[in-house]
Amino acid sequence: MEKRTIAEAAIEVLKEAKQPMTAAEITQAILDKGLYTFNTKDPRAMVRGAIERRCAGVNRKNSVSQKDFTKLSDGKYQLETTK
User: Fold this and answer.
1) What is the pLDDT of residues 20-75, one digit of tens each?
2) What does the alpha-carbon distance between residue 35 and residue 58 come to, in Å, rounded to a whole number?
3) How many whole angstroms separate alpha carbon 11 and alpha carbon 39?
4) How wide is the angle at C-alpha 56 spanned by C-alphas 51 and 62, nearest 5°?
5) Helices 6-17 & 43-53, crossing angle to 10 degrees?
6) How far apart are CA 59 and CA 9, in angstroms?
7) Strand ranges across the sheet with 69-71
8) Number of other residues whose CB lies within 10 A of the CB of residue 59
9) Radius of gyration over alpha carbons of the chain, in Å?
10) Which residues contact 19 (CB under 8 A, 6 or more apart)?
11) Secondary structure of 29-57 in the HEC alphabet?
12) pLDDT class of 83 with cuts at 50, 70, 90
């Protein structure tokens, strides 16, 4: 299995799904496809955090400059249109 980050796994899932998904749906898809091995009791929180650090319009003190995701009003995430 190639080594990837949680964010990279989430990008892969969203590209394949071609539709917005919740953090729970993204997490389940990552687990089902074996894209990432979590070492935590709450993988959904890890996925949500990794996505929101890279989410346009979400300002967190640990945000990164590269914005790969957009959070929709219904709480689902989608890839930035440039992806």
Assistant:
1) 999 999 999 999 999 999 999 999 999 999 999 999 887 777 788 889 999 999 99
2) 25
3) 20
4) 60
5) 90
6) 22
7) 55-56, 69-71, 77-79
8) 7
9) 12
10) 78
11) HHHHHCCCCCCCCCHHHHHHHHHHHCEEC
12) very low
Instruction: Determine the residue type at 75.
Output: G
> Scanning the structure block, which residue is given the tokens 């799904």?
17
List % helix, strand, coil for the chain (3-state, nearest 5): 40, 10, 50
What does the block give as tokens for 18?
Answer: 């071609």
CA 19, 3, 79 angle in degrees (round to 5)?
A: 20
